[in-house]
Write a structure and sequence with these properties.
This protein is mostly beta strands. The protein contains one helix and eight strands, in the order E-E-H-E-E-E-E-E-E. It has a domain of 64 residues. The chain has a four-stranded antiparallel beta sheet with strand order 3-4-5-6, with no helix packed on it. The protein has a two-stranded antiparallel sheet with strand order 1-2. Strands 7-8 form a two-stranded antiparallel sheet.
């Protein structure tokens, strides 16, 4: 186990991914249950789900927090495939 800038890691590969001067920053609030984040490098944004509120949210430096999709089928896990497409797991449709 190692500690990098307050992060506790159990895998030495983590230290190769996170800069020593990295810090956590709260970007937004107001979710009941946030889950399934996925980062899209081509647009420099993160998508995730707020499952009980049946919505997908998006955050970027340029726009801040926006609703990406609502209703969202109670999505809970997201993945970007090798072609850049969003794949989501739903349990509400």
């Amino acid at each position: 186990m190692s500690e990098t800038s307050g992060f506790v890691s159990f895998d030495p590969r983590f230290d190769d991914l996170v800069r020593p001067d990295a810090a956590l920053q709260k970007l937004c609030t107001g979710f009941i249950w946030a889950e399934g984040p996925v980062y899209f490098a081509d647009g420099d944004y993160v998508l995730w789900s707020d499952i009980p509120n049946d919505r997908m949210l998006r955050w970027s430096d340029a726009e801040g927090l926006t609703v990406f999709r609502r209703p969202a089928g109670y999505t809970n896990g997201h993945y970007q495939d090798s072609q850049g497409r969003l794949i989501s797991c739903e349990h509400g449709n």
